[in-house]
Write a structure and sequence with these properties.
Strand order of the largest sheet: 2-3-4-5-6-7-8-9
Number of helices: 10
Distance between the termini: 13 Å
Largest sheet: 8 strands, parallel, barrel
Strand content: 15-25%
Number of strands: 9
Oligomer: single chain
Order of helices and strands: EHEHEHEHEHEHEHEHEHH
Shape: globular
Radius of gyration: 18 Å
Helix content: 40-55%
Length: about 280
């Protein structure tokens, strides 16, 4: 059942559970995520991010993810994550994505407000939803690495103003999280998460979810995180599955595919259970 982000995250925030957003850069990953969600009767978000488009172009992702979402027996939101340009976000919407994240977090505050407001108007007119980011979530390595991440943490009062002025449907926050593999154990600012949640009354988004401790996830969800982004964990699981297949003597791609799917399903199920979303996608 293809839905937008509000259809999934508003009940999650009210019900005190979290929903996973999983990037799926091939059909096998998409199958694993949606099949697992159906088996656990859990709502789920799936899609891709702009940084992953060199691996699988946006139009190709739409061709397999959107039909699978429509046929699913649970609510599935197809989301375009970290869209860096207006044009790419519009392309996703035209292709049938039901939600976009327009990442203007590196712009000035007023520019961020202006650009997200415009995107929110367009998305809402199309029956879609929009996620914004305030503060800036960096990377654990590479060009997006921040020297002093706390300098870019989300300010709760500014978040309240941002939400009021933009009409955004969900807000990605910077609270000690980062994209990719964590070199050191991260320390989330739970007091900040709670303050932002109280001041915005909006579903909050935690980027860089792969690698966080289970207790951190549980506490973050309790305090208002409704959407958790996962990619690194399922990406690495897929590789491990392929390696297991090779070790078992598989010599063809068709022989390896079941191993990849099984490995990604195991991690997806682990996250869905951890976030408390099991049986939250039941119809009626």
């Amino acid at each position: 059942m293809l839905v937008n982000m509000n259809d999934i995250l508003l009940p999650a925030r009210k019900g005190g559970y979290g929903v996973g957003f999983f990037n799926a850069v091939n059909v096998e990953m998409a199958r694993a995520v949606i099949e697992t969600a159906q088996e656990l009767q859990a709502p789920v978000m799936i899609g891709t991010a702009e940084v992953l488009l060199p691996v699988m172009e946006l139009e190709r992702v739409a061709e397999y993810v959107i039909p699978m979402a429509r046929k699913a027996s649970v609510p599935v939101c197809v989301h375009y994550d970290h869209g860096l340009t207006f044009e790419r976000c519009m392309e996703a919407l035209k292709l049938g994505f039901t939600s976009v994240m327009y990442d203007c977090s590196t712009a000035s505050y007023e520019e961020n407000v202006e650009m997200i407001s415009r995107m929110a108007e367009i998305c809402h007119a199309m029956g879609a939803t929009v996620e914004g980011e305030l503060g800036h979530v960096g990377d654990n390595a590479g060009t997006g690495k921040l020297e002093n991440p706390s300098d870019y943490f989300t300010d709760p009062d500014m978040a309240a103003d941002f939400v009021r002025r933009t009409g955004v449907d969900a807000l990605a926050v910077a609270v000690g999280n980062a994209h990719g593999d964590y070199a050191f154990v991260p320390k989330l600012d739970f007091a900040r998460i709670n303050a932002i949640s109280q001041k915005t009354n909006l579903p909050l988004v935690l980027h860089g979810g792969s690698g966080l401790a289970d207790d951190d996830f549980r506490r973050a969800v309790e305090l208002g995180i409704a959407k958790i982004n996962i990619f690194t964990d399922i990406d690495k699981a897929g590789r491990a599955g392929l390696e297991k297949g090779l070790a078992a003597g598989e010599k063809t791609m068709t022989g390896l595919i079941p191993y990849e799917i099984e490995a990604v399903k195991a991690v997806t199920a682990e996250k869905i259970r951890l976030f408390g979303a099991v049986e939250k996608g039941r119809r009626g």
